Amino acid sequence: MDNQDVAHILDEIGEMLEIKGESSFKVRAYNRAAYAIRGLSEDINNIYHEGKLQTIPGIGKGIAERIAELLETGKLTYYEELCEHVPPGLLQLISIQSVGPKKAKLFYDKLGITTIEELLEAINKHKLRDLAGMGPKAEENIRLGILELQRLRERILLSEAYPLAENIVQQLKEHNFILEISTAGSLRRMKETIGDIDILAASNESSKAMDVFCNLPKVTHILAKGETKSSVVTQIGLQVDLRVVLPEQFGAALQYFTGSKEHNIHLRDIAKKKGLKVNEYGVFEVKTGEKVGGVTEKEVYNLLGMEWIHPTLRENKGEIEAALAGVLPNIVELSNIKGDIHVHSNWSDGFNKIKEIANDAKKKGYRYIAISDHAEKLKVAGGLTADDYRRQWKEIEKVNQEIDGLKVLRGAEVNIDNNGKVDFDDGFLKEFDIVTASIHSGFTQSNEQLTKRILSAIYNEHVNIIGHPTGRILGKRPPYPLDLKEIFKAAAETGTFLELNSFPDRLDLKDDYLREAKEMGVKFAINTDAHSIGQLRYMFYGVATAQRGWLEAEDVINTYPFEKLMKMLRNKGNG
Ligand code: DGT
Ligand code: CA
Ligand code: CA
Ligand code: ZN
Fold first, then answer.
1. How many of the other CB atoms lie within 10 Å of CB of 403?
2. Ligand 1 in reach of 185 Cβ (< 6 A)
């Protein structure tokens, strides 16, 4: 139980008392106590052990006793009894703007409503407007409040949250009272979707930091503003939390608020065994209570007997064991990437000319790039015929003559049809430097059919890469059913590479699959599938996903020098 957990329970007690119609005096006492605990800079467990709960302004004898029970046992009888009498869904209703405890109770008493879903159904049947104190306008306001809440609760793509977070960090950094600042939470761990943005700053003047933060131009409303934590909602409907700590706490706080929660729990277990305690304020010796570190994250990990762990690995999926044993993976970095080998030009549905793409790739420091335009069966994307490709190769040749230090490869993205056949026969396919085969239709087939289609592409000796292997589109389309083990096995055996498509709503293969496939001996290509030069920067999200999948540079073929890459590509079918 930490400060937040205790404050949360006290808040819920206040809300349940209000729903029950208890005196406002009693309700306010719980609200005040929760507020006071949220504002503490010290761990409430320490305060309790020093016998000083009642010195916290706003906490009297009765509430101090309840907190003591919570901290001692992790449970609270009073809270559990209240939960028995107040359906838990009613607390959810209160989180809707314009629904307070009184209205929640009214909807429950008159219509038996206990969940947001039931409330929305009642609104759609216009059952709310006839209740006492309601009306069509109030009913509509609640409907809008529900929509807003649902929007807030949806997770947002990393690629939408990331630039926003960086922008906020940059703006705060300009102030000299911000001594250190970093993103934290799932965004720092580079998860594919983000629930809310967490930012951590170190300052000796937290209220100034909070003022600047709450007044940022992108902020549309303020959910909470306090000394140590503020939460705002931004134009894109995403919540941003800023926490401000003292400089000497920054490392420990950054470690804590980066998470993941599961990683932190495991880490604290290890600390305990060493007679240490880790929280957001530092690392402490349990016996003496003495603080032994926490200025930097590295210090926190080192004190626990392990190397610093990269944030993308912090999911409690074996990284702590690996760090303890000194065998953390040497994960791939953006600077290792030597080329992008799945890019579309204006020959199919891309936006830019080959020359423009090549120039931009060169500016990025790449050594090679593959123009992989769609093949003829994909008519909607302007798929190319064999003759089109032959003409395109002339243009590629010309660009290669004009540009130094970068090789443009003849690529194609061919379609795997419903029977597992790809566009073009072997005689033509072997003319390409690199062939990517993808499924673009027939997603609704069975697991067996879809797996068989991909396997036959893998066994085609001219197919080098399987594009976006599971076909998922985040927030729109689930991955199609596949026997991935079979596919990984066949890919490893034949020297067929699997794509990590870096498009932010694909990130396909995803992190866990990358790791599983790597263990089976598969190698990968991190590609952007860019349809314009602006999208070449998506490589950044692909590399982050690769890190989350524990990939090292040697697992990724587009980190290889040009000659070695070409050799790998030619080896298929001869190996
Ligand atoms: P999200 O926002 O759903 O994408 O995921 P996170 O990981 O950013 O989670 P969030 O925003 O709720 O909290 C940020 C970090 O703070 C989380 O990764 C770990 C830490 N944290 C939050 N709540 C707890 C908790 O109850 N216990 C522990 N140990 N850590 C927590
Ligand atoms: Ca978060
Ligand atoms: Ca958060
Ligand atoms: Zn493509």
1. 16
2. yes
The reply to whether 223 and 116 lie within a common domain is no
Q: Return the ligand 1 atom nearest residue 241 CA.
A: 11
Instruction: Give the HSE-up count for residue 70: Cα atoms under 13 Å, Cβ half-sphere.
Output: 24
Nearest CA to ligand 1 atom 19: 259
Domain of residue 188: give its range: 156-245
Whether 575 is covered by a domain: the verdict is no
Tokens in use for 453? 């289609």
Which atom of ligand 1 is nearest the CA belonging to 268?
29
CA atoms of 195 and 186, how far apart (whole Å): 8
Give residue 186 CA to ligand 1 midpoint distance, Å. 8
Q: Is the same domain home to 305 and 188?
A: no
pLDDT given at position 114: 83
Q: Is 186 in the pocket of ligand 1 (CB under 6 A)?
A: yes
Alpha helices for 316-437 (secondary structure H) = 319-324, 354-363, 386-402, 426-429
Token digits for 41? Answer: 């800079």
Residue 251 falls inside a structural domain: no
Say if residues 415 and 443 touch (Cβ distance below 8 Å). Answer: no
Q: How many CB atoms lie within 10 A of CB 355?
A: 16
The finding on whether 259 has its CB within 6 A of some atom of ligand 1 is yes
3-20 vs 61-73: helix crossing angle, rounded to 10: 120
Residue 97 resides in a domain? yes
Residue 108 makes CB contacts below 8 A (sequence gap 6+) with 19, 87, 90, 114
- Answer yes or no: are the C-beta atoms of 423 and 377 closer than 8 Å: yes
- Measure 197 CA to ligand 2 centroid, in angstroms: 5
- Which tokens in the block code for residue 207? 């209220």
Averaged over successive runs of 10 residues, the pLDDT of the chain (575 residues) comes to 85 89 89 83 90 90 95 92 82 82 89 86 92 92 83 79 94 97 98 96 97 93 93 86 97 98 97 96 96 97 98 98 98 98 94 95 97 89 93 98 97 96 95 96 92 97 97 85 97 97 96 98 97 92 98 98 96 68
Indicate whether residue 549 lines ligand 1 (CB < 6 A): no
**pTM for the structure as a whole:** 0.77
CA–CA dist 336, 515 (Å, integer): 19
Our answer on whether the CB atom of 196 is closer than 6 Å to any ligand 1 atom is yes
Question: What residues contact residue 489 under an 8 Å CB cut-off, 6+ apart?
Answer: 520
For residue 245, give both structure tokens.
Answer: 């700590």
Given 124, 152, 180, the domain boundary residue is 152
Given this model, what pLDDT does residue 575 score?
Answer: 46
> Would you state the pLDDT for residue 574?
61
Which residue's structure tokens are 């005040």? 32
How far apart CA 257 and CA 249 sit, in angstroms, is: 12
Name every residue whose Cβ is closer than 8 Å to that of residue 575 and which is 6 or more positions away in sequence. Answer: 495
If one counts the domains in the chain, the total is 4
Ligand 3 centre and the CA of 113: distance in Å?
29
Three-state DSSP class for residue 350:
coil
- Please report whether residue 187 resides in a domain: yes
Please write down the HEC assignment for all residues of 53-113: HHHCCCCCHHHHHHHHHHHHHCCCHHHHHHHHHCCCHHHHHHCCCCCCHHHHHHHHHHHCC
Q: DSSP secondary structure string, 157-186?
A: EHHHHHHHHHHHHHHHHTSTT--EEEEEHH
